[in-house]
Amino acid sequence: MVRDAVLDLVTGSTCVGCGRPGRMLCPPCRGLLPARARISWPQPTPPGLVTPWAVADYDGAVREMVVGHKDRGQFGFRRVLGDLLVESVLCAVPNHEQPLVLVPVPSRPGSARRRGYDPMGALVRVAVSRLRRHGLTASAAPMLVSSRAVVDQAGLSAQQRSANLAGSMACPSARLARLAGRHTRAHVVICDDVLTTGATAAEAQRALAAVGLSPVGIAVIAATRRRFPAQSTRSLLS
Ligand SMILES: [Zn+2]
Questions:
Q1: In this structure, are strands 38-39 and 52-57 parallel, antiparallel, or unpaired?
Q2: Bridge-partner residues for 192, per DSSP?
Q3: How far apart are the CA of 100 and the centre of ligand 1, in A?
Q4: What spacing in Å lies between the alpha carbon of 54 and ligand 1's midpoint?
Q5: What is the pLDDT of residues 92-140, one digit of tens each?
């Protein structure tokens, strides 16, 4: 308690889960994080999309950590987010014997440079080191780049997102692609932090297919829940 209080004075941190002063994520809230990934198809699903796996809903503490890590420079969340990503990766592959190649979805042009930090690349590196510690053969392959500017996705419909992103990613080096695929039995997994409409993952899948790589799945930390207009039945009873 004393240590947490001191940290709070130094850092001004509060837990993203419960608001308790001290650590950015307190141990009890850490313990409440979901530990198993599940299949999270977006609705509607982009045609041909490989199976997407997510550990959490994009909500609450997980959302705070993703945004904090990506947009507020809270790099302390890197390890816990990387651990969550590992759970999705392990589910996205059909077995754990074959080598794993993790391909992060690229940042939009300018955004990573502006921050001087590639959030998704960093999370994939954490995940790779965790997987290796568990005895798996894993490597990070940041071989996709954003080949043209896209507009901010916020507020766009699924169709608009898909049109906005079509053709926006590329693997600029055939050598890189060959390198990633040098284990012909390697399982390629697309990695992103959040799955919304699936348009970003679908574009990454297309860009990989264009250089002859067939991802086996998509691994994300969190997926947005579809929200339907509230249909209250209570009004019928009152
Ligand atoms: Zn907490």
A1: antiparallel
A2: 220
A3: 33
A4: 22
A5: 999 888 999 999 999 876 555 566 788 999 999 999 999 999 999 999 9
